[in-house]
Amino acid sequence: MKNTKKFLREHFPDSWSTTKLYTKIAVPVIIAAILFALNNFIDNFMVTTIDGGVAALSIANVYTALLTSVYVAISFISVSAFAQFYGKKDYKKARDTMKFRFMSAFIFAVIWTVIALIFPRQLVQLVSPGEREEVVVLAIEYIRYITIAWVLLSASFTYGSALREMGYGKLQMYNSIIILATNIIFNSIFIFALNMGVVGAAAASAIARVVAVLTNWGVMFWKNKHVIFNPIRLFVIDRHIWHIMKFRVLGGFLIAISQMTINLRTMLWNYGYPAGSVGSAQFNLSAASIIGITGSITAVFLSAINSINATTSVLVSQELGRNNIDVAKVNSRQLKGYNFVLGLVSASLLGLIVIILPYLGFLVRGQVENQRTINGDVAANLIQTQMLSEMQYTLLPIVFLMPTWLWFISSSNAIQSGKKNTLLSYVDFTANILQFIWLVIVNVVLARFFPDKLWLAVLVFYLSDIPKIFPYEYAYYKWNWATNITLDDKKTKVEKLKNEI
Question: Where, by residue number, does the polypeptide cross the bilayer (predicted)?
Fold first, then answer.
């Protein structure tokens, strides 16, 4: 009992003022993340009036998610350096870290765009083989235009992440309101007024990204123009930054692959449950038809995860940069409990959505109206019941696991705020590769014996998240991760950096 009390005391905020401090940083970031997630939800909702529109966006957005995985990996290897240098007020090196982040993200975005423009059909069919031609055509149209948003995302993601790490999440929240309003307005104009279909959704997303770049850059210039870099001097980066990044490149590569395995889950679900396998064959429902919508819903309620990076950067990384090691450790432990509570709140809200989901027929109206036109009212009612039921059951495991996700992600973010960054990438890579293999097994076995039970396969897959927590917790409590990496300068020996990173 004594040990339990001690554990709870150490792992939850020790005062109301501490809780308010954490909340002041976290809540604006959560709201901003919700608004960002709502952009994807709005796109999916707007195209529900188009038969196959949701499935098409779900397929195409796999590649948006894969590119985002690269951005996340770049952030993974650079976030501690940026936050520590910023906390130390070494703005030149913080700015040079920003250069590295943007340069890397932009290069990958251009490569991704070129591949997508040359091979759009092959990319669509790779993700969802056997998909009906109407959906394939819609997905190709969407990909051709969403590539503009991909390139712009390299800038908006870089500046948006930096704003959160600097502690300006509240201002980024205001930006997100403007961005969401832009997306809604132009989606409405392009899809409903101009009948542009999925192309309209892509065009609206691109315009929203332009607004995101301008507003995020504007806020950063206003609050601290010292971290704004001159594009002409993009490749002029301090040698110390190159040294840090050089020894973390392997870790970044592993994190990118690791994140991609998460985003490729949609592709595997489509292989296991292709068009016509979910429910009656006449409905032509695939995993994409269900997970495309539930994924958008889940993203809204997982927005609390975005706050972990912000609170860790401000309260752990910046303290490490100031050499306040003990303060950073205390904050990291208390943030674990705080984020766990955030997970409970988010899970409860998602649980309410799950309960009322059978009554939210507007989410699937495109497929319902298509069936009504082709096969009449009975078929329309059946497909609505089938889709909403599958969505309801596929969301249940997420409701129960969400608090534990926020707990161990807090551990992961704390570790990457100091040293052991590359070593952590091995843990993350191994855990997600094993989970990916488990998903392959689930799709091969359950899809064969329970071909019409997508929700059952999803439930069995998510059971793998339970053992996943243990390696992260071991690393958090056993590794000496809390280190000030800014103490190394140009004269520091490469070998010393190697040992610390």
Answer: 21-42, 62-82, 102-122, 142-162, 174-194, 200-222, 243-262, 282-305, 338-360, 391-409, 429-450
